[in-house]
Amino acid sequence: MCSCNPPCVPYLGMYLTDLAFIEEGTPNFTEEGLVNFSKMRMRDPSVPYRIEHQPKVTQFLLDKTLVMDEDTLYELSLKIESRIPPG
Could you give the C-alpha distances from 60 to 15, 63, 86, in angstroms and in order? Predict the structure, then answer.
């Protein structure tokens, strides 16, 4: 079993789901018209992520030569996961 010291990098899908839930499900203001600080605290985690800058990762993510058009991505997705269910 692996372990790490928090905070670790969260799964992006879960993080975005949580943010969407907080944004859509919690009002910005209380019934008294005051700023809902509870909501603001939910958006901003109290433990900062200490991620060191990795120039190679940044360079890879910003490399426009690696961007594929929609048709190419679709064709690759069909190779990975066929639309015809196994039967």
Answer: 23, 5, 36
Amino acid at 80: I
Say whether pTM exceeds 0.85. Answer: no
For residue 57, what are the contacts with CB-CB under 8 A and spacing of at least 6?
Answer: none
Backbone torsion region of residue 33, taken as left when φ is above 0, otherwise alpha when ψ lies between -120 and 50, otherwise beta: left
Spatial distance between the Cα atoms of 30 and 38, rounded to a whole number of angstroms: 10
- Domain ranges (residues) in the chain: 12-80
pLDDT per residue, tens digit, the chain (87 aa), is 566 666 666 667 777 888 888 889 889 898 998 888 888 878 766 656 667 888 998 899 899 998 999 999 999 998 888 777 666
**Tokens for 18?**
């949580």
* CA 57/CA 51 separation, integer angstroms: 12
Rounded Cα–Cα distance for residues 49 and 5 (Å): 11
